[in-house]
Design goal:
The structure holds 2 protein chains of 2 kinds.
Chain A lengths: L2 H5 L6 E6 L14 E6 L8 E6 L2 E8 L6 E3 L15 E10 L3
Antiparallel strand pairs in A: 1-2, 2-6, 3-4, 3-6, 4-5
Chain B lengths: L15 E6 L2 H9 L8 E3 L8 E2 L1 H5 L8 H7 L4 E3 L3 H16 L5 E5 L2 E5 L4 H4 L3 H16 L3 E6 L2 H10 L5 E3 L5 H5 L12 H9 L5 H5 L3 H7 L2 H10 L18 E11 L2 H21 L2 E12 L4 E12 L2 H15 L6 E13 L11 H21 L10 H5 L12 H4 L15 E6 L1
Parallel strand pairs in B: 2-4, 7-8
Antiparallel strand pairs in B: 1-6, 1-7, 2-3, 5-6, 9-12, 10-11, 10-12
Classes of the chains: A mainly beta, B alpha+beta.
Chain lengths: 100, 439
Amino acid sequence: MTLDDFLIRKKEATYMLRVTGDSMINAGLLPGDLVLVERRANAKDGDIVIAQVDGGWTMKYFRTRGGKISLEPANKKYRPIVPKEELHIVAIVIAAIRKY
Amino acid sequence: MMPDQPFLLRSFPRAIVHIDGDAFFASCEQARNPTLHGKPIITGKERGIVASMSYEAKARGVTRGMRLCDVKRQCPDAIILPSDYETYSLLSQRFFAIVRRYTPDVEEYSIDECFADLTGLRRPLRLSYRQIAERIKQDVDTAFGFTFSVGLAPTKVLAKIASQWQKPSGLTVIPGPEISQFLRALPVEKVWGIGAQTTAFLAKQGVTTALALAQQPESWVRQQLSKPFVEIWQELRGQSVLPFVTADKSTYQSIQKVTTFTPPSADRTFVFAQLAKNIENACIKARKYRVAAKTVFLFLTTQQFTSSGVEVTFSRRTAFPQEMLPAFRPAFEQLCTPRTLYRATGVVLRHLDVNDTAQLDLFGDVFRVEKLTRLYDAVDRLRTKYGKHTVFLGASLPAHQFAQHLGERGDLPDRHHALLKAETARKRVGIPMSFGEVT
């Protein structure tokens, strides 16, 4: 098995992004890390997702507790985002890469 | 034939889909950068003309091939980006790979469109042809984050009409018995393969719609039109005659490499360097496909867009730039007019055949060729390991020293600036990068 096969499930839908913020720091995702994301339209509770918020992309935990959808950061400095309208999920995070 | 009689009674004697990316290059840019969503996006900055435009730009009157200075007047807030062919071709390969999950019979028609033959797949997939087309559309739309338009019909020509029927994000099905309804109002020049000349000729004969052409009797068609148009006529009537080109491109009739540079140059050393680099690139491709060329055609284009060329023949087939250059230089000297500004150079390797060094000429070339073969084996290994042009001819050095386009046209795609650790300008990770901030 190559590292590609190990990290990637659906090759055709997988993209790479660079993390710039620190909102997921307690999930072990640091600024400068690369994440592999898989494009899909839906996510389940607990997935780390890429969502489109205010014209930009944000990476957060996807929460559906109590029938309410929210985007939860892994850093006490930030508050959860509760979308007012429809939430647009772009992709889910499937792996993180950090090269030393 | 009666005018209202259907051309075809069965829905799908063959089931062919045509799948077409909606504003593909511009959509690739929007899909990876959320700040571009909903805005007029144009690619082609390095060419000076519009290569692709988003639907927002299209709505503002921007058309393909428009000059960028005209775009700025027509649509001042347009965002003009340099083409990132590396990413587009990565995504293009993914597009074909997704379609191949359904059928091996895929014809890669261009970077952003393909034909696929679904005939006979209903039973194994337990889906109707329409459902298979829907599944493919859903798969590509999801994987890319932008839409494709899909047409399903009994022939390639009709499938192409179907995919254009409703754009963007359409899915149009033309079953055999309904062909006439789709052709009735369609201007004949909208049919794939019918150009301005044929349109004008047909108009003189009173044929202006696709339906009018399809309804002409066979004798008239065979008498008035050449073979490719007889085939189009058959395909319009639901009779599939055009072949599927599914084979990977593994053989070449000729190999062409062209470079355009900004600003134009009158410097002979520089212009020759561009040609030498063209030759190196063409030879890399030739060696990759294990072919060699007997002749090379070289050409120069002046700033006034006039081209002149000359052909050079070698004593035997070769794929080594080292061997081509000596024969090349006199031809160049003859071709290149002093004090003329040139904007482009190009070479075409012709009369290609399998690179077979067993048949050497009688002048004791064996050792020299043996040596060159070993040399270029090493060059090719270096290229595989460290990237293209790790070593190159001294003659092409000036072409490597400067960016291809100076000034605004030389802006490089973002991907070229954001190298990852251990990436080089020539070797990058084969996964599309996105540059929207992920906070």
